[in-house]
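ok so I'm stuck.
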Amino acid sequence: MRLISTALVALAVAAPACSQTTSPDPFPDPIPATDGVIRVGFSEFAVLPDIAGVPARMMLILDEPGAERLFVNDMRGALYRVSYDGKSVLRYLDIHGAAWGIKVQSRGRERGFQSFAFHPQFTETGTPGFGKVYTWTDTENTQPTPDYRPGGGTRTHDTVLLEWTARNPSNAVYDGGPPRELLRIEQPFANHNGGRIAFKPTAVPGDADFGLLYVGLADGGSSGDPLNNAQNLGSPFGKILRIDPLGSNSTNGRYGIPAANPFAADAAPNTLGEVYAYGIRNTQHFTWDPANGRMIISDIGQNTVEELDVVTPGANLGWNLWEGSFRYGRGGVVMDDPRSDPSLTYPFVEYAQTDSLFMNQSAITGLAVYRSAEIPQLKDVILFGDLPSGEILWVPADDLPSGGQSPIHRVLLDQGGQARTLLEVIKAKNTVQGKTPATRADLRFHPGPEGRVFLLNKADGVIRVLVPDGD
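replied:
not stuck anymore, here's the structure
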């Protein structure tokens, strides 16, 4: 296997000039606190168990293909199976278990069991994807040789993509053997690790996208992308990759590179065929619009701008030369000539970290395009949120805006007739639990079956589901 050191193939990207005027807030008009608010109800759906007295660190909830079961992960290594009524919660697999030798690295807020995905053929006997589930996790086991080295920083841990094969997918717990390792990335810093992995849910057999796995990977960490990974097409960092997990034409021979990938036919030796999109800082979530198949990602900003982007094959989202619609400067963003490089993909909506709705830290999260009529107030909107504060936000899903935060409005939760943020709801639950009220929500959410939207957090172990206001 050929080991690729991305330092050897790094592009010579000049740092943006910082002599121009920078601003800590490019959007001085705040997101309205009351105008345009959508109010919805919620109910407590299920509770995940604490580990050593610490609430579950939930990241993602998914509907298993072909069965009425949900799955949700805890960053410390557990993957739980949850019944559709929320009454049954069972640990399906613990990837941190001693039998596997993976040693999940879950220290700090950003490291751990990041994401998982079921092959769309998971329950289909006789198909290549039968029984296969994929996990994307940080590990402290750094003995194996990585497939990619960033060529700088310190090897704090690795991020590994693993394929597990269940013998009988309908069993209550995982019954297969050890996982097969597809991809190993050496991480140079402790922050900005893996993002989401997912198969496109709107793809059906016969589509070019069917069975292809999208893999999100942040820029490698530290601050400002000091290794210039995101703009380097020879580095997997700061990218969304698209691979065939059942193929074998990659450099390490453990997965496939689809011929339709935008850079698959590039003759340059320092361009990775796995790359689907680049110029990404720290995307922890992406999704597809079920109405039109459009791919949308949320990308966490450096100092100033949080953003949502439409991603197309080969798109360059600009980081670390741009942050949102503005050139990136070490002291903030450069206000001159916004959105002036026609080769880039700019956000369709963005907000300032300093907006009065949020806390002293801000990070965009989400993400769901709601097309169901089950919650009429939410039909045809894009739901996203702010991770620390727990603010849930919306913009219209059709006729997308062209940047800025003016289209953004809030979603508030009805609790006993009072409009609350998720963090306020969590604090009230903490009091009932006899725990110290949380100082942040660590919000995640995801669409589910039957028009549901599930809210996850890392502070009280409760999975909540949105319902029409008044239900």
